[in-house]
Amino acid sequence: MLEVKKTTRWALAAMLAAATITGVSTTATAKEQINVGACVSWPGYSFFEIVRQQNLAPDYDIDISIFEDPLGGHAALATGQLDVYLCTGDYTPVAAARGLDVTNVAVQNLVYGVDKVVIGPGLEPEDLRGQRIAAPQAYIGQLVMGLWLDSVGISPDEVTWVNLNADEAVGPTMSGDLGAAYMYEPWVNQVVDNLDGARIIADTSAPELMETGIFMDVMYMNTNFIAEHREAAIDMLKARFEATAYWNEHTEEVNQAFADYLQWSKADIESIMGTNGKYLEGGLYMLDFNEVARICGVMDGAPPFGIENGAMESIVELTNEWWIKLDLMDEMLADPSDAFDCSLVADLAAQGYRQDFSAR
């Protein structure tokens, strides 16, 4: 697991105090530390490393941790160990239902086919009833698998769910222990290229899935951090978009930086991020600020892929409905707007911030 060494706020304060006692000058204003988490090693969650490398938030000391454990990262955010957390949007209604100090402040990108269902040799969708199906519980993979099974007439209770992430599902799929599995690159090719008859049976680039808007990566923040450090919260949001713009303009450079940071090959990065600075069919579609503001409903205009302007509430509702079907939640939220906070996006837009970029 990649993890950058953390320095807590109290430790920083202690060092400054010690410097004062020993006579070392501290007249320069100390940078505010922001603790950022990524739920897994993933290029789409690595833009704050570009913020650091390019000094896009010069007033802040940004500390980044990669958890390789989405729920563990959410727990750290809820307890205030993190200020900002980058992960999939599926946890949004769960956090609200549990009353956690967590809110979804902005969509970051749409999954444009990167999330896939791989089916085993000799199997058709109708053969999966009673089979073992792999997907990570309470994560985007379970939603992808659930919606796809539903589309082929199989209900969630007609299969045996196995809680595995994409990398963990490779071995059981290769051995024939699984009928189908949720996967993303680079794990998909490891199976399809080496297991005769295995194939991709579905992915999230399907128009009927894209227009739902539920398959996305988002930025979460601790609500106390927003309340007590609102200017910093807005600055972090802006810095993330500035890093995306830098990637758009310097795609090859940033893809290499992602590869170095995550210790992946550049080819694996490009299999997710593409090379045109905007999207890759079968990978990710990176949203610019204007598109995010439209999804939040704070800027006029149509979001991409048929998503409605102001779709955040319907996205939360649909995710909530599916978590009930998958037995992760018991009931619908009384008010889905409690699960997200588009006010930071609205404030940034009100300040005149705009960003509109396309594939080069």
From TrEMBL:
UniProt keyword list: Signal
Signal sequence segment: 1-30
Pfam families: NMT1_2
Keyword tRNA-binding: no
Domain of life: Bacteria
Compartment list: Periplasm
Entry's family note: Belongs to the bacterial solute-binding protein SsuA/TauA family.
Protein name in the entry: ABC transporter substrate-binding protein
